[in-house]
Inverse folding.
């Protein structure tokens, strides 16, 4: 049979190891939650950026279409003006 002092010391060592393991597990859990929070924040930022970029793209496409329409109208007017000038010069 073991002396009571050694049994108590062994039990205290096991308790210290269990507490240390628990502290490590808690630290790891806190770190994972912090990382998950950071990831979720990054995902929210990416979604916000995507939404903003999609809106900017829509606006750019609208402006490009509008410029194309204006360009066609200017081209049509230039052709009309050139035809008018040719008609005047041909008289």
């Amino acid at each position: 049979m073991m002396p009571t002092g050694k049994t108590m010391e062994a039990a205290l060592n096991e308790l210290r190891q269990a507490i240390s393991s628990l502290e490590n597990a808690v630290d790891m859990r806190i770190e994972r939650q912090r990382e998950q929070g950071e990831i979720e924040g990054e995902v929210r930022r990416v979604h916000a950026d995507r939404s903003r970029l999609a809106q900017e793209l829509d606006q750019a496409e609208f402006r490009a279409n509008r410029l194309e329409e204006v360009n066609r109208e200017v081209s049509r007017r230039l052709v009309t003006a050139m035809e008018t000038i040719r008609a005047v010069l041909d008289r």
Observations:
- The radius of gyration is 39 Å.
- The helical segments are 4-90.
- Residues 4-90 form the longest helix (87 residues).
- The CA atoms of residues 71 and 87 lie 24 Å apart.
